[in-house]
Amino acid sequence: MTLTTPDGSEPDVFHVAYRHKYGQSSYADAMVTGDAVATTLQVTPRRPQSQTTTEHTTIERSNTMRGAVLYAPGDIRLEERAEPAITEPTDAVIRLSATCVCGSDLWPYRGLDPIKGPAPMGHEYVGIVEEVGGEVKAIKPGQFVIGSFFASDNTCEICRAGYQTSCIHRQPMGAIGTQAERARIPLADGTLVATPDLPPDDLIPSLLAASDVLGTGETVVVVGDGAVGLLAVMAAKHLGAKRIIAMSRHRPRQKLALEFGATDIIEERGSDGSARIKDLTNGLGAHSVIEAVGTPESMLQAIHATRPGGHIGYVGFTHGDLPGDQLFFSHTHLHGGPAPVRRFLPELIELIWNRVIDPGKVFDLTLPLDQVADGYRAMDERQAVKTLLCP
C-alpha cells in the first residue's frame, strides 16, 4: 500500500454520521519534503496462530505491546503498555492494522481539556480479531473488523432506537487507547462489524475512516474543514444534497471538499460568512448545517447560517458557553452528540467495499506508530488533515 499526500495541507448530514490482514509492517521509507509527505508501507500477511477454543482463542505473545500515551500538553510518547487480555466473556482482542489521530485528540494535546496523569490515546481502529471471550458468538478470530469509538451492546432500548453511543452499557474506547498494536474491545458482538472478507490494502484507510468520522436538505453548509467536515461534504453528496457549501480557508482542503462534492467554497467567517451564505440561498440560509469544530464561534456560525425551520447537526464537542437568546430566536432544529457509528457501519462498509465512496482520502499523512508524536504535531499545526498510524 502506498499513500502520498495531496499538494498541501470527521457523517449523516444532520444526524451526522460517523482498520486488515494479519500482518507485520515494515516501513521502506518515509520521506518528508516541505509540505508533502510520502510513506511507503509494505505489508507481510500473517495468518492466525491458533484456533478458537470453547472459551477463547489463546495467542502466545509477550506481556507488553507498544502504545501512545499522553503525559502532558504536547507530550505524547510511544511506550510499552500491558498486552490487552480477555477480562469479560463478551470481550475480543484485536491486532490493529491501522489507527489514527482524531481532531478530538488535539483538545487534551493542546491543553484545552484536562489530563489526569498519563493517558492512553486513540479511539479509532480496524484490525484482525485474535481472541474472543466465551460469550462472543457473531465475531470470530481471523475476521477483519471495524468498531465504534464507544463500545455498545447494540441490544438495549437506546441502541435499538439508533443511538448506540448512548447505550446503557457503553464503554469509551478512548479510555482503552487504540493508538497501539492491539486493543481489547468490550461488548464485541455489539460493537464490531466484520467485512465480507480480508480487505485489499487500498481499502484500509476508508474502512478506518468509517470507525469515527463517516456515517439533508436541498442546501447544506459545512462549518469546519477537518476530516469530519470534509466527510460530511461526502455524506451530503451521497444523500442527494443539491447545493453543498463548504466553509474553508485552506486551499488543499478546499480542493478535497470540491472533489467530495462541494459546490461552493466560502472563506469568510462570522457575520461576513453568514452574509455570503444568505447571498447563495435567496436571503434565507441553508436547509441543513453541519457544525464540525466544537468552538462557540463555530456553533454560532452554524446557527446564523441556518434558515428558520432548518436543521443543525453538531458533532463538534462544544467548548464554552452559547448565548441562549440566539439559540431561542433562531427557530432551528438542533440535533447532535456522539455519532452513533455502529448504526451506520454496515451500510458504510458496503459502500466502501463496493468502492462507491472513498473516505480514506482524508488521510493525507501516513506514519508508522513509532512516529505518533510527529502525527500529532502535524495535525496541531494544520500541516495534515488526518494522520493514519500503522502499528
Explain what this protein looks like in three dimensions.
With 391 residues, the protein is α/β, with parallel strands linked by helices. It folds into two domains: 2-212 and 340-390, Medium-chain alcohol dehydrogenases, catalytic domain (Quinone Oxidoreductase, Chain A, domain 1, Alpha-Beta Complex); 219-336, NAD(P)-binding Rossmann-like Domain (Rossmann fold, 3-Layer(aba) Sandwich), CATH 3.40.50.720. 23% of the residues lie in helices and 29% in strands. The chain has eleven helices and 21 strands. The strands form five sheets. Strands 6, 8, 9, 12, 13, 20 and 21 form a seven-stranded mixed beta sheet that branches. The protein has a six-stranded parallel beta sheet with strand order 16-15-14-17-18-19, with helices on both faces. Helix 5 (227-238) runs parallel beside helix 6 and helix 7 runs parallel beside helix 8 (296-305). The radius of gyration is 20 Å and the shape is globular. The chain starts with a strand and ends with a strand.
